[in-house]
Design a protein that fits this description.
Layout: E1 9-16, E2 24-33, H1 37-40, H2 42-45, H3 51-54, E3 58-66, E4 74-84, E5 90-94, E6 105-108, E7 112-114, E8 124-134, E9 143-157, E10 160-164, E11 168-169, H4 172-185, E12 190-191
Parallel strand pairs: 9-12
Antiparallel strand pairs: 1-2, 2-3, 3-7, 4-5, 4-6, 4-8, 8-9, 9-10, 9-11
């Protein structure tokens, strides 16, 4: 068991879809500790790591709630992960599924889930900027519009989780920073402000 306890964090983030058929929705974000890495399936993702080493790292889910049926409910999720490592090194990467890139989730009212674990990383700050995005033409072109987002993460000390970072709503500046990385990594895509 880790030397701290994530008791769970919750956040509700409202959004408007915009366009001529604009809808109002919200995202419910929940972060919990991974108390049972075997049951959660985490050991299937990182089978070479002992389950006890994965215990205590956060698991986040974000559910899209929107009272609409049909293509107006098709969205994607994009996430930028930043790791602040020892000696001031910084590693940034877009967390994407290869066949969905730059998105890590896509579909009708898609649920976002992430369960990062960095056992063995000494004195690291792991943070993520996660955004719900709209594809204005559902999926015919490579065009994403941000709807809302949240920031979250955790710290490690001596290779173990040492505390969560605050769960908070992402702002326009966070999207602008993320957009610079997206445009560099995915030049064939268009990303609105």
């Amino acid at each position: 068991m880790s030397s701290y306890e994530i008791t769970g964090a919750r956040l509700t983030v409202p959004f408007q879809t915009g366009g001529r058929d604009g809808h109002t929705g919200r995202v419910e974000v929940v972060i919990r500790p991974n108390d049972d890495p075997v049951r959660s399936g985490h050991t299937s993702v990182i089978p070479e790591v002992e389950p006890a080493a994965l215990q205590g790292f956060p698991v986040v889910t974000a559910h899209v709630l929107l009272d609409v049926v049909g293509p107006a409910g098709v969205f994607g999720w994009v996430q930028l992960v930043t790791q602040r490592l020892d000696r001031g090194r910084i590693h940034r990467a877009i967390d994407a599924v290869e066949w969905m890139a730059p998105m890590c989730a896509f579909g009708y009212l898609p649920t976002f889930m992430d369960a990062p674990a960095t056992p063995g990383d000494v004195d690291t700050v792991w943070s993520a900027d996660t955004f719900l995005v709209r594809l204005p033409d559902v999926s015919r072109t490579r065009h994403l519009q941000p709807l809302c987002g949240f920031q979250w993460g955790y710290r490690t000390v001596d290779g173990r989780p040492a505390g969560p970072l605050p769960l908070r709503t992402a702002d326009a500046a966070g999207w602008r920073d993320f957009r610079v990385v997206l445009e560099r990594e995915y030049p064939d895509w268009h990303f609105d402000l």
